[in-house]
Structure formats: structure tokens, C-alpha cells
Specification:
The protein contains 18 helices and 13 strands. It is of the alpha/beta class and about 425 residues long. The chain folds into two domains: about 130 residues, Response regulator (Rossmann fold, 3-Layer(aba) Sandwich), CATH 3.40.50.2300; about 260 residues, P-loop containing nucleotide triphosphate hydrolases (Rossmann fold, 3-Layer(aba) Sandwich). The chain has an eight-stranded mixed beta sheet with strand order 8-9-7-10-6-11-12-13, with helices on both faces. β12, α14 and β13 form a beta-alpha-beta unit. α6 packs across α17 and α13 packs across α14. Bound molecules: adenosine-5'-triphosphate and magnesium ion (MG).
């Protein structure tokens, strides 16, 4: 981690295109399978592109221009990347081929291609352009891939998302609760929040009682599941017991009897069969059973971190946990691990981009950043008033939308914006990952 970012031979790339099909199925595969690249962000919508571009400061931006509201807006936005010596490759639909000359004049543009293109060639051209642009020669030895690929079942059906971090107070509860509320109340996506802190944070934040809770399930696995759930505005919530003795007993029992029906692991696994599209696990920091068994029952991980040195070490620790120590014990493929940078402020000495770079330099790989959330005091104010923060704080809502779009690409946001949020039929698509 002491390696300065400039010595990192990998090219950070941001992929932007109109919709998830374009970004995840067309553009992403050659970049994902090419170890010289790290995808630091994806954007399937203009608003997300604008936000992530300057936050993540990628070396290379590959854009299908239809994502932009117009050529001027795109050229203006791309001009920003000069600040960090970024370069851009653009792909035009055949119908807009006349704009080629206009785009080629932009200082940062290193190539303009007309669709249909071979994305492998685009990746190649992009890599060459980024390397050429490097302020100094790239380090000779490529970082060792600490791990390659693993097999695991394909993700289908329910997204079971473990929100985790190795340090406390990063914002796991805030973000898990916000996403759960947003998905279920605003987007009509049937969701379950599992709040596993001691005491469970969702109770005060969402104005719930401490009973019923997971104890209903532990005493009657099976039909006790429904009895364990509380609801707020259609969002289902399942709380860990608030009583320390019950909490500890469940942890001890689960450690010795992980696959028995009364374990924490089985409780989370039970959620897979209840027709939820999203199960959000607000896991406690550290490595005790309420956290670890949640991870082993999840198919997606979101590491929540602040841009601090301590959290960088902690994030690296979480990556080792997921990709090395617990390997084979969970069903989270590398492609389903995301970072959320939280409590980001402009005065911090470590920028969002710097944080990601350092992680890559230190570990050889880092997950893409699915959302960057500024430090916003209004968040804890809303929580103190027991009002869902995501309905009160714009900056949080935007970031939660980006996170939702990363986890459930396709249609969610379009439906919302196209209908003032009153559309009752959200489409939900979970990307199919390739396992090699
Ligand atoms: N983006 C933000 N800006 C400002 N304050 C925030 C932000 N995100 C979270 N907070 C505040 O930081 C504190 C910690 O957040 P939260 O409880 O969500 O973190 P956590 O990771 O779940 O913590 P714990 O380890 O205690 O479970 C809370 O007071 C919350 O209101
Ligand atoms: Mg918490």
C-alpha cells in the first residue's frame, strides 16, 4: 500500500453507455477479462456518468455517446479529464457518424469509432492510449494477481447483499436501510432488510419495535420466519434480538451448528425462498457469527468505507476475508463485490480516486465503486427525527440510485424518472455473471 498510485501499471477505466445491456453485456467483458484494466466505475445513465467521472478520475473513459444528452454536454464533461491526464475513446452509433469530426477535435479524445465495434479492439486501443498518456513510464512488473477466478453458482433470483466493513461507523446501517427503503417503498421492489447490529440500528431509524425479531424464527424455524418480520410502508424488516443474552446464544449455537435450521446462516438462507428481489443484510463490523454467517449466506457484497488510511487497511482486510480466507465458504463471485465510499469530503487528504488506486496498488485488485456519498450532516439529523434519510437528503438519494443501478441494472431508474415515481411495475434484472 506504500506504492504511489503512479507506479500502478493497471489502467483504471470507466465504461459509460446507454443502459445496462450496453455497458454490462457489450462493453464490459473484454475489460473484465483483461488483467491490465481495473474497472473503477460504470455508468448507464448520464447523471451517474457526471457524478462518477470526476469522483473516480479514471485513466481511460470509454463512452457510447448516446448516453449524453447532446454532443456539447459530452465534450464539456470530457474536458474535465484533462485535469488528471485522462483520455477518452468514443463510440458513435452509425446514425451519428457525421459528428465524428466534432468529437475528434476534443483534446482528450484518442479515438472515435462507429458502431458496431469490436469491443476487444476498443479495449486494446484504450489501453494503448492510456499508457501513452502516462506521465512517466509504467512500472515494468505487473502486479501479481493474488487470485484468479473461482467457480460459484450463477446469481439468479434474489440478490442477497451483505453490507460489511472491518471498522465500525462507516455507514453500513445507513446505506443498507436507505437502499432497502428506496427499493421497496419508492421502486416497488419487494425487499427485506435484515438488521444485525446489537442493538439493531433499524429499530430507532425506521421507528420499529424490538419485538418481534429473529428469536421468533429461532424458536420456530419454518413458519417462525414470517412471525419474525415487521413492516414499515411495505418494507419488511427482520431485526436481531436486542437482548445481549439471546444475541450471544444465537451466535454460539450458530458457530457449532451452522447448517441446522436454527442458525443465523439458515435464517438468512431462508430469505432466498421468500420471493424477495432484494435482501439487504446490515451486518455488524468485525468477524463474529452475526457478520460471518451473513456473508456466507449472501451472493453479493458491498464494502462500505470512508476515504481514510485506517479504512483502506480495513477494506483490504475485508477483501482478503472475502477472496481468500472465506473462499469456498460463500457464493459471492468477484464480480458481485462492490465498494461504496461514504462520508467523502473535499478536505480529506485521500480522494476517492486516490483511495481506489491505493487499494489496487496494495492488493492487486479492487472492486468497482458503486456509489460515492458525500459527508452530509443532514443524514444523522433525519435519523434522529426517525425519518428515512434517503427521503430527506438529496445527495444520499442520488448515491443510493447509483448503487441500486449497479446492483439491479436496467430499468429501475428509467421507470422511476419516466413516471414521477408512481409506476407500480418496476422491472428488475439481475445481471448474469460469467464464471470462468
Ligand atoms: N454520508 C454521511 N454523512 C454524514 N454522516 C453519515 C453519513 N453516513 C453515515 N453517517 C452517520 O455516521 C454514523 C454511523 O453511520 P452508521 O450507523 O450507518 O454506520 P455503521 O457502519 O452501521 O456503524 P456501526 O459500526 O455502529 O454499525 C451515524 O451517525 C450516521 O448518521
Ligand atoms: Mg450499523
Amino acid at each position: 500500500m506504500a506504492t504511489p498510485p503512479i507506479a500502478d501499471p493497471k489502467v483504471t477505466v470507466m465504461l459509460a453507455g446507454p443502459g445496462h445491456e450496453a455497458v454490462f453485456y457489450q462493453m464490459q467483458p473484454p475489460f473484465l477479462s483483461d488483467a491490465r484494466f481495473v474497472i473503477s466505475a460504470n455508468a448507464t445513465q448520464w447523471a451517474a456518468f457526471e457524478q462518477s467521472l470526476t469522483q473516480m478520475r479514471p485513466d481511460l473513459v470509454v463512452v457510447q455517446v448516446e448516453i449524453a444528452p447532446g454532443p456539447e454536454a459530452l465534450i464539456q464533461m470530457l474536458a474535465e479529464i484533462q485535469v488528471w491526464n485522462g483520455v477518452a475513446i468514443l463510440v458513435l452509433p452509425a446514425a451519428l457518424r457525421d459528428l465524428r469530426g466534432t468529437f475528434e477535435k476534443a483534446a482528450v479524445v484518442r479515438g472515435v469509432y462507429i458502431a458496431p465495434v469490436n469491443w476487444g479492439e476498443i479495449a486494446q486501443a484504450g489501453f494503448a492510449a492510456a499508457m501513452t498518456e502516462r506521465a512517466r513510464a509504467a512500472a515494468a512488473a505487473p502486479l501479481q494477481q493474488a487470485y484468479l477466478s473461482r467457480t460459484s453458482g450463477a446469481i439468479v433470483g434474489t440478490r442477497v447483499v451483505a453490507f460489511l466493513s472491518a471498522t465500525g461507523g462507516t455507514g453500513r446501517s445507513t446505506i443498507a436501510e436507505s437502499l432497502a427503503y428506496e427499493l421497496s417503498v419508492r421502486m416497488n421492489v419487494r425487499s427485506l432488510l435484515m438488521s444485525f447490529d446489537l442493538p439493531p440500528a433499524a429499530a430507532p431509524h425506521l421507528k420499529l419495535r424490538y419485538v418481534p425479531n429473529a428469536m421468533e424464527y429461532f424458536t420456530r424455524p419454518g413458519d417462525g420466519f414470517a412471525a419474525a418480520i415487521q413492516s414499515r410502508e411495505g418494507l419488511d424488516v427482520l431485526l436481531a434480538p436486542e437482548n445481549s443474552v439471546d444475541y450471544q446464544k444465537a451466535a454460539e449455537y450458530s458457530t457449532a451448528h451452522k447448517t441446522e435450521p436454527e442458525s443465523i446462516y439458515s435464517l438468512v438462507m431462508a430469505s432466498w425462498t421468500r420471493n424477495y428481489a432484494a435482501v439487504l443484510l446490515d451486518l455488524p463490523a468485525g468477524e463474529q457469527p452475526w457478520g460471518l454467517q451473513g456473508i456466507t449466506a449472501a451472493n453479493t457484497a458491498v464494502i462500505v468505507t470512508r476515504c481514510t488510511l485506517a479504512d483502506m487497511t480495513a477494506t483490504r482486510h475485508s477483501l482478503v476475508l472475502l477472496l481468500e480466507r472465506l473462499i469456498g465458504e460463500h457464493r459471492i463471485p468477484r464480480e458481485a463485490i462492490y465498494l461504496v465510499l461514504n462520508q467523502v469530503n473535499d478536505h480529506s487528504p485521500i480522494s476517492a480516486r486516490g483511495f481506489h488506486d491505493e487499494l489496487v496498488a496494495g492488493y492487486g485488485w479492487a472492486p468497482p465503486v458503486a456509489a460515492v456519498i458525500p459527508y452530509l450532516p443532514a443524514i444523522s439529523q433525519a435519523q434522529d427525527e426517525q425519518i428515512p434519510a434517503v427521503t430527506r437528503v438529496d445527495g444520499l438519494a442520488k448515491a443510493i440510485h447509483n448503487l441500486a443501478e449497479s446492483l439491479f441494472p436496467g430499468g429501475l431508474m428509467a421507470d422511476l424518472s419516466g413516471s414521477n415515481g408512481h409506476n407500480s411495475k418496476s422491472r428488475l434484472r439481475i445481471p448474469h455473471f460469467r464464471f470462468t
